[in-house]
Amino acid sequence: MSSDFETYEQDFGTLTAEITSRIGKIPKLGGDEKKNMVVNVEKQLEEARELLEQMDLEVREIPVQSRGMHSTRLKSYKQELEKLEKDFKRSRIAYSDEVRDELLGDDGNSSASQLIKLRDERAHLLDNAEKLERSSRRLEAGYQIAVETVYM
């Protein structure tokens, strides 16, 4: 059972890395390419949700002694998926802002667009801080697993 969970974890890690890469590309694309990328990311997010459901089912079947460790990891994966969904929304909003600016003929020099750029930069900094925090938690969880393994 635990090996199934680990397989799902690997699949989830690969999938989230691909989603993250595609989300980063969305604001840089245009037209149909962007629409196709958005559709692909939506499909991948759904696939990630399904993987989490499978992991949840596996955790329920794991013996009680090791269930806590797997539950904690599952919870962090759910948080990671929520973060990806928020990033995806932001990238789609950035797309909407670009289209609106194109239609209205915004040349990028207005104070409103400067404020938007500053807000985006601040959001990017906050995102990076969150990524750093998540990575720190993962390292701590990995260390905890190593310690538990040594003492068992």
UniProtKB/TrEMBL annotation:
UniProt KW Membrane keyword:
yes
Q: List the InterPro entries.
A: SNARE, v-SNARE_N_sf, Vesicle_trsprt_v-SNARE_N
Keyword Transport attached = yes
Q: Name one GO cellular component term.
A: Golgi apparatus
**Which parts of the chain are coiled coil?**
31-135
An MF annotation (GO) of this entry: SNAP receptor activity
What's the superkingdom here? Eukaryota
One Pfam family this chain carries?
A: V-SNARE
Its membrane topology, per UniProt? Single-pass type IV membrane protein
| Domain Vesicle transport v-SNARE N-terminal residue range list | 1-91
Subcellular location(s) per record: Endomembrane system
UniProt keywords (A-Z) are: Coiled coil, Membrane, Protein transport, Transmembrane, Transmembrane helix, Transport
Instruction: Give GO BP annotations, semicolon-separated.
Output: Golgi to vacuole transport; intra-Golgi vesicle-mediated transport; intracellular protein transport; macroautophagy; retrograde transport, endosome to Golgi; vesicle fusion with Golgi apparatus
Give the family from UniProt. Belongs to the VTI1 family.
* Protein name, per record: Vesicle transport through interaction with t-SNAREs-like 1A
The organism is: Acipenser ruthenus (Sterlet sturgeon)
Lineage of the native species?
A: Eukaryota, Metazoa, Chordata, Craniata, Vertebrata
